[in-house]
Amino acid sequence: QVQLVESGGGLVQAGGSLRLSCQASGSIFRINLMGWYRQAPGKQRELVATITDGGRTKYADSVKGQITISGDNIKKTVALEMNSLKPEDTAVYYCNAVEFPWGATYWGQGTQVTVSS
Fold first, then answer.
1. What is the pLDDT of residues 34-49, one digit of tens each?
2. Mean pLDDT of 15-32
3. How far is it, in rounded angstroms, from Cα 35 to Cα 37?
4. Rounded CA separation 30/5 (Å)
5. In this model, does residue 102 exceed pLDDT 90?
6. Which of 33, 52, 84, 106 suits 71 as a labelling partner, its CA being 20 to 30 A distant?
7. pLDDT at position 32
């Protein structure tokens, strides 16, 4: 089993920045992909960014150039640096981890990001 704990959410004004962090614990040695998803009120959960154990990154088109994902493959941590935040970035942000070889998926409890206009 893997547990994911997020931190770093909060309230920020439009144009501001936030950094989210996620720490995995438990049986972490099989994790080969970590990432962030978000869910705004009334909307489906959507991909924000992912990073593989080899450091390959993937971003949603809507956040390219605004958000940067980074990770520590040894410690199994992942961070999300968010800049130039807009009210439409308001959502609950969830940390995600995927194990090999069977693709078991784990989620954190979510952290609220609120961007005021």
1. 999 999 999 999 999 9
2. 95
3. 7
4. 17
5. no
6. 84
7. 94
